[in-house]
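Minutes, project check-in
Item: structure for the 184-residue chain
Input as provided by the requester:
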Amino acid sequence: MPSIVHTFDWPDRVVVGTVGRPGSRAFYLQARDGARVTSVGLEKMQSAALAEKIDEILDQVMAADGNPVSVPTGIPVELVDNEPLDQPVEPEFRAGALSLGWDPSTAQVVIEAFPLIEVDDEAEIDDDTVLEPDEVMVVRIPVGTARAFAARTLEIVGAGRPLCPFCGQPIDPEGHVCVLPGDV
């Protein structure tokens, strides 16, 4: 069991945001409850996968007999959050694994972020070794907030550097050298 659990059962705010310029942005999952703010570092692809899977869960719940918890198809206007991350951004840890679930008793999406566990090269690890994280972040959010969270996250992930129309690679602000297939 982790020694530190950052739990947010009904947070005032939960977002994925970035610090830095496109091409060198750092992504963060951040939750706030009153004055308490917790940030966890994420990879861009973790952020995208998290948002996509939240939408999938919400769509599955919505498709259940009669949409029992009134999952919105769109984003409730009052839940749109376009504000930057709360400052200062001081991550508790960098996420190595994310877990996502649905709690039918509270009609909430549950996000769990576990730290990246670095193993010493000399440590003896076998298939039976269980590595316990020192801390974990658990965020529980209602369906409307989850829908808005997913939309914002996908928008932020997509707001990076433009892609080259020829090779599909990101174009840096300084320019771009395009290497087309077959030119190698």
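Outcome recorded: Strands lie at 4-8, 13-19, 26-33, 36-42, 91-103, 108-115, 135-142.
No further action items on this chain.
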